């Protein structure tokens, strides 16, 4: 029993911590094997890009200094690329920090936060941490049911989280329905549109969401450098909103919330379109490779617009996850998302995918 539990604020007393994917080194230690494949945290399988590595090298002599707390250069680069004003941008220590800043800026314990069943695990954690009431709306075919979500929004609602595509289901909302939902929100309700996987979405169906915060000033779009840009280890993401909301988020954040290395790397990553294109191409090929295998193994999967796919193993998934671990393959069980028969698999390199498929085939046939 934690001796300080009673002193913690009410929400924190009930808090269940986020469970991250198992680190490669930990499994290597446990099994004493050299090669471990990690397809558990939707990381970029390409490794650090050359332009990012060079930017980090160039920054190393400067590390005795504080970073630029305004993130001027990165905001200028984002502004030019995304066609939004620098005043609309909030930089964060990962886009997780953007979600947290919105929560801390706007949500108090009396208020409600609406999000979908099977939505990203950080939403319930952040809601619980401030002690606000979570309204979890049942999903429709694993995706967000916007009609049902809209009905849950009342006078006490301050915030709605939408993940598009959603993690861990990979589901994508229809862009017109999504815009209609956002347009229908009352003025006292903010909406975080979490687009951590935006870059992986087929351009034919993805939203032109960056224009929305001007039309709908209560909207905050959260994006990240962790996934398609391959910078998960550095922690950098950003919010795009109306200048008024960005002003408030920037008051709440720590003055030096993004490290000098992260700022420099993100700016370099933004300019490396070859890396991004290669990432997206590798992802489509890998998605085809995995789903072909699932078809052959007669396992249903949820069609995904992200860099991962959740597969239904048609039995309790935890023992399958554990058997895969013993073969040196780390994937993600999603029972904590109310999906006890699914495993979420991140798309890896062709070779990593093949090793996973082989291991899964063996585990399912009892080898
Ligand atoms: C990975 C992820 C994020 C953010 O990750 P950061 O590394 O904090 O930028 C946000 N939302 C969803 C749905 C994610 O899967």
Automatic annotation (TrEMBL):
It comes from the Bacteria. SUPFAM superfamilies: PLP-dependent transferases. It comes from Methylomonas denitrificans. Its cofactor is pyridoxal 5'-phosphate. This is Histidinol-phosphate aminotransferase. One of its GO terms (biological process) is L-histidine biosynthetic process. Its EC number is 2.6.1.9. Signal peptide: none annotated. It catalyses: L-histidinol phosphate + 2-oxoglutarate = 3-(imidazol-4-yl)-2-oxopropyl phosphate + L-glutamate. The modification N6-(pyridoxal phosphate)lysine is found at residue 227. InterPro entries: Aminotrans_II_pyridoxalP_BS (IPR001917), Aminotransferase_I/II_large (IPR004839), HisP_aminotrans (IPR005861), HistidinolP_aminotransfase (IPR050106), PyrdxlP-dep_Trfase (IPR015424), PyrdxlP-dep_Trfase_major (IPR015421), PyrdxlP-dep_Trfase_small (IPR015422). Pathway: Amino-acid biosynthesis; L-histidine biosynthesis; L-histidine from 5-phospho-alpha-D-ribose 1-diphosphate: step 7/9. Residues 35-360 form the Aminotransferase class I/classII large domain. Homodimer. It is an enzyme of class 2 (transferase). The keyword Amino-acid biosynthesis applies. Pfam families: Aminotran_1_2. Gene3D superfamilies: Aspartate Aminotransferase, domain 1, Type I PLP-dependent aspartate aminotransferase-like (Major domain). Belongs to the class-II pyridoxal-phosphate-dependent aminotransferase family. Histidinol-phosphate aminotransferase subfamily. GO terms for molecular function: histidinol-phosphate transaminase activity; pyridoxal phosphate binding.
């Amino acid at each position: 029993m934690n001796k300080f539990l009673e002193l913690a604020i009410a929400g924190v007393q009930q808090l269940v911590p986020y469970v991250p994917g198992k680190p490669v080194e930990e499994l290597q230690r446990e099994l004493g094997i050299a090669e471990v494949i990690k397809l558990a945290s939707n990381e970029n399988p390409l490794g650090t890009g050359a332009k990012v590595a060079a930017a980090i090298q160039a920054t190393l002599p400067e590390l005795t200094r504080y970073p630029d707390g305004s993130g001027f250069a990165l905001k200028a680069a984002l502004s030019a690329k995304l066609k939004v004003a620098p005043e609309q941008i909030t930089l964060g220590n990962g886009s997780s920090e953007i979600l947290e800043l919105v929560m801390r800026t706007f949500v108090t314990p009396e208020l409600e936060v609406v999000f979908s069943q099977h939505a990203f695990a950080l939403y319930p954690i952040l809601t619980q941490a401030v002690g606000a009431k979570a309204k979890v709306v049942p999903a429709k075919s694993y995706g967000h049911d916007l009609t049902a979500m809209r009905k849950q929004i009342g006078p006490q609602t301050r915030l709605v989280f939408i993940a598009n595509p959603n993690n861990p289901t990979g589901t994508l909302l229809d862009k017109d329905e999504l815009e209609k939902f956002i347009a229908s929100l009352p003025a006292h309700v903010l909406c975080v549109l979490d687009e951590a996987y935006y870059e992986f979405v087929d351009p034919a169906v993805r939203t032109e969401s960056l224009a929305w915060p001007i039309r709908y000033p209560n909207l905050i779009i959260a994006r990240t450098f962790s996934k398609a840009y391959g910078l998960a280890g550095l922690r950098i993401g950003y919010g795009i909103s109306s200048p008024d909301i960005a002003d408030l988020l920037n008051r709440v954040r720590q003055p030096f919330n993004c490290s000098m290395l992260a700022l420099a790397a993100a700016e370099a990553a933004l300019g490396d379109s070859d890396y991004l294109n290669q990432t997206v191409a590798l992802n489509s090929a890998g998605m085809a490779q995995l789903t072909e295998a699932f078809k052959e193994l007669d396992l249903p999967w949820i069609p995904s617009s992200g860099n991962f796919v959740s597969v239904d193993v048609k039995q309790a998934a935890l023992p399958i996850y554990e058997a895969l671990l013993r073969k040196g393959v780390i994937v993600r069980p999603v029972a904590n998302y109310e999906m006890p028969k699914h495993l979420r698999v991140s798309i890896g390199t062709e070779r990593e995918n093949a090793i996973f498929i082989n291991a899964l085939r063996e585990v399912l046939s009892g080898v």
